[in-house]
Amino acid sequence: MNVDQKLRDLKDEYQSDIPTSFTEKDKQNIFKTISQDTYPKRP
């Protein structure tokens, strides 16, 4: 088993465990935060 194959196996294993997309509720919360101007200001 070479390094590339090990890397692919690890990627496949963890990719299913880590959510990589936003839910509709996440999108609404982000939009709400942006529209209300409640995010921290940069100095």
Automatic annotation (TrEMBL):
The superkingdom listed in its UniProt entry is Bacteria
State what protein this is by name: Uncharacterized protein
Q: State the organism named in the record.
A: Pontibacillus marinus BH030004 = DSM 16465
Q: State the organism's lineage.
A: Bacteria, Bacillati, Bacillota, Bacilli, Bacillales
